[in-house]
Design brief:
Elements lengths: L2 H19 L10 E4 L12 E5 L1 E13 L4 E15 L2 E3 L14 E15 L2 E16 L16 E8 L3 E4 L8 E13 L4 E2 L4 E9 L3 H4 L4 E2 L2 E2 L4 E12 L9 E2 L1 H12 L5
Antiparallel strand pairs: 1-2, 1-11, 3-4, 3-15, 4-5, 4-6, 6-7, 7-8, 7-9, 8-10, 10-12, 10-16, 12-15, 13-14
Length: 270
Amino acid sequence: MNIFTNRLKQTLLLAAGLSVVTPVSMASTWAGTANYTAAPGATGDEAIVGPFDTYDFGSGVTLVQFTSASTFTAYFQTMVDGHFLNNAGINVPELNISGAGSGFELTVAATLNGTYSNFSGFQSFSFTGGAVNLYFDTTPDYSFTGDSGFNNGAAILSGTVTGGSGVISPAGIGAEQLDLNFSGIFGSYDSNVYAPGITGGHSVFSINLNNSSLLSGINSVLGQNTNTGVLAAVDGSIQLTSVPVPAAAWLFGTGLIGLMTAGKRKNFAA
């Protein structure tokens, strides 16, 4: 497949995902400050960052288990490697993105449950529950190969998955990179860290089934053996909002169901 065709397919996938799952009206973007020196367990040498409106995620992994012919459970973990305001990066030298050494780290862990089905060449899905947490840890120690350090800090931002649905057309089957879009409501945040309060977020992720440099050596995700499901690399960001996103609490879209399809059919692109 040539570069142009591949880029076109990815663009069409992203456009389809956004049209399916993005709420009709979006909430106001949050722009505020995170005082990590006031987070639980902080030693005072972390950082006060702001204003910013977006967390950028670095490398991450997701594992999707097909628990029956119509249900699935997904496990996801990643780390934060940047803060942005209006798409411009903010320098935070204290933020550790290596998982070892000095400074502090921010990591994300999530568990999701839902159902899926096929009809007339399309795949439909819905989410029935789950939870997403962003953790602060003053001792950087996350490890993908060790499956550790992603949820051993203090949860300073949390969301509960209460619903969501979408569809994907056969165009996504076998794509090398699939796109994931979600919006949501945060059930709680650490008021000592964030000002003003945060209640929502909107994200776009890319999911890659073939990132061997990251996926090699990973045997489990959040304690779940990778032999029990389909493993993929994940990258993305979350833009924070000052009021809940209308009509949804965590809507997930095209990438995850595309990952399911690829995993079920073993139709991974080279």
